[in-house]
Design a protein that fits this description.
The complex is a heterodimer of chains A (about 80) and B (about 425).
Chain A: H1 3-9, E1 21-24, H2 34-38, E2 43-45, E3 51-53, H3 61-73, E4 79-82
Antiparallel strand pairs in A: 1-4, 2-3
Helix pairs in contact in A: 1-3
Chain B: H1 2-9, E1 23-27, H2 42-49, H3 59-69, H4 82-90, E2 97-101, H5 111-118, H6 120-134, E3 138-144, H7 148-163, E4 171-176, H8 185-192, E5 216-220, H9 221-232, E6 242-247, E7 251-257, H10 263-270, E8 281-285, E9 290-293, H11 294-297, H12 304-309, E10 318-322, H13 328-341, H14 348-351, H15 353-365, H16 371-384, H17 392-406, H18 408-415
The chains are: A alpha+beta (about 80), B alpha/beta (about 425).
């Protein structure tokens, strides 16, 4: 499956709810950086190319879709949605 | 056996008993040279502290209440309440592995080594009580490789207890790599689960072990010795002291002080000034702690609440006075360099960020930090903060940030291309340096 297919598949059927938030395990992340392109509203990159993930909960369906796209695309499986 | 029985009849010690009741003196590095506090064998331990009460079954709740009553906390700097930690492990059922963490990765600190070598039975009484309360059949004494004196002391004490017929549950000694981060709790748990001794990202701090794995309780050696005080004495006889390690140029002193003692008195009692003058500042807590100017520190009491109000913590108990003739920026740059090298090399912000910060801190101390370097340093410190799986980078940044404030005048001078007139010498010990 291509990454784009993975991203499409990851699209949610439901909008954001409650305190769901995007979380990263920094010890697994290798700074590949795809996530920052797919979830630009949630992720910026630091001076070394590693993602800085916004701590606040997901606030909209758009943010939820971005988060799920980033989770699906991460080759290191460092991202997940909690809550 | 007759000795054992006679001692059982000795009434419990009624007067308040501290952990050490004295000061231990050690060389600058290593703990083999310990003197000043006599090691206790089982008889001596019982003569001073009395005989341990069981914490099994219903007694567990009484022990938890006593731990609550004396506000016993962890020694990681966050002062996490020990009773809360125990209850959160118990919430996952009985049968946890119980670890007494004596790895003491802080190069300057020796309080845990002093406890393990002079009060092994107090630490083990605490461990056994914790195991009973947890319904545990797996006790671990976690030491770092090379801590031979501590390992010998614990092994001897375990043999002594077996000979005396104590019905302790099984306890094993596990040696960790001799690194700064070997005492990090998630790395301990990861090792016990068969993984490497490296910190791990934990989603839920109340459940630091893996899904489906056996629950684990990790307490510092000092915390466990304090549990030992509670199961030999009581909450009424417990004294809320702190164990500190004061680092001088040629030696270290481990001493126990109460909350009415000021850091000024600690330094007067335990520090040898190289020039007869008071220090200009103290590093408090550990290498990931905070610098405090002497004017502030001398009046501060060694009291968790008072220190917290100043943004400080006793943490690992390190007190590192900086002589008036030393340069706080050089010292801090050395320590940041050391801490960067001690990264577990797992998280990008730590692996790349701390090294970049250490380079800029070295530039600053050498008087060659450019205006753009100054901006980068600020940006990097902001970017790295809070982004490691463990708190290692945060500690390094906390120490450096406090240095930039406390040694603000020096920062000014160094920025203008001039360094201090201070001679360059290492104040705090770093492994690998002579």
């Amino acid at each position: 499956m291509s990454r784009h297919a993975a991203v499409r598949e990851a699209r949610p059927a439901r909008p954001s709810t409650g305190d769901a938030a995007l979380r990263i395990d920094p010890s697994v992340c290798d700074g590949v950086g795809i996530c920052a392109h797919l979830a630009a509203d949630l992720i910026t990159v630091d001076s070394w190319g590693y993602p800085i993930v916004r701590a606040e909960p997901l606030r909209s369906g758009s943010e939820r879709r971005q988060a799920e796209a980033a989770v699906a695309a991460c080759p290191r499986k460092a991202l997940r949605i909690t809550g | 056996m007759s000795v054992h029985l006679r001692l059982v009849e000795t009434p419990a010690v009624a007067t308040a008993t501290g952990l050490l009741d004295g000061a231990a003196v050690l060389s600058r590095r290593g703990t083999e040279s310990l003197s000043g506090v006599a090691p206790q064998d089982l008889d001596a331990h019982r003569a001073v502290f009395g005989v341990r009460r069981s914490a099994a079954g219903d007694a567990a709740e009484a022990l938890l209440a006593a731990i609550d009553e004396v506000h016993l906390t962890g020694r990681g700097g966050g002062h996490f309440p020990t009773a809360v930690k125990w209850r959160s492990v118990l919430a996952h059922g009985l049968g946890a592995t119980v670890v007494v963490n004596g790895a003491e990765g802080e190069p300057g600190s020796a309080k845990d080594a002093v406890l393990l070598q002079t009060r092994p039975h107090l630490v083990l009484d605490g461990l056994v009580a914790a195991m009973e309360a947890m319904g545990s059949t797996d006790g671990v004494v976690w030491l770092h490789d090379g801590a031979w004196a501590s390992a010998r002391s614990i092994s001897r004490a375990l043999a002594e207890r077996a000979t005396a017929g104590l019905a302790d549950p099984p306890i094993r000694v596990v040696l960790a790599p001799d690194r700064y981060l070997s005492g990090e709790a998630t790395g301990i748990i990861r090792t016990l689960e068969g993984g490497p001794t490296l910190p791990r990202f934990v989603e839920d701090p109340a459940r630091p072990w893996s899904e489906g794995a056996r629950s684990v309780l990790v307490n510092n050696a000092e915390t466990m010795a304090r549990v030992g005080l509670l199961v030999t004495g009581s909450a009424a006889t417990y004294r809320p002291t702190s164990l500190l390690t004061v680092v001088s140029a040629g030696h270290r002193v481990v001493l126990e002080v109460g909350p009415a003692t000021t850091l000024g008195e600690v330094v007067d009692r335990a520090w040898s000034s190289p020039d007869g003058r008071p220090p200009q500042a103290l590093l408090l807590g550990g290498y990931g702690g905070s610098w405090v100017s002497w004017d502030v520190a001398r009046e501060l009491h060694v009291d968790a609440d008072e220190l917290r109000r100043h943004g400080l913590s006793v943490g690992a108990g390190l007190v590192g006075p900086l002589p008036a003739t030393a340069c706080g920026l050089e010292e801090s740059a050395r320590l940041v360099r050391y801490l960067a090298g001690q990264s577990a090399r797992q998280c990008g912000p730590c692996v790349f960020g701390l090294v970049a910060v250490a380079d800029l801190a070295s530039d600053l101390s050498a008087g060659r930090l450019t205006p753009s370097g100054r901006r980068r340093l600020g940006r990097f410190m902001g970017e790295i903060s809070g982004r490691g799986a463990c708190r290692h980078p945060d500690g390094a940044l906390r120490m450096l940030a406090s240095a930039l404030t406390v040694f603000g005048d020096d920062v000014h001078r160094h920025r203008r291309g001039r360094t201090c007139d201070a001679p360059t010498f290492a104040v705090l010990p770093v492994p690998g340096e002579s």
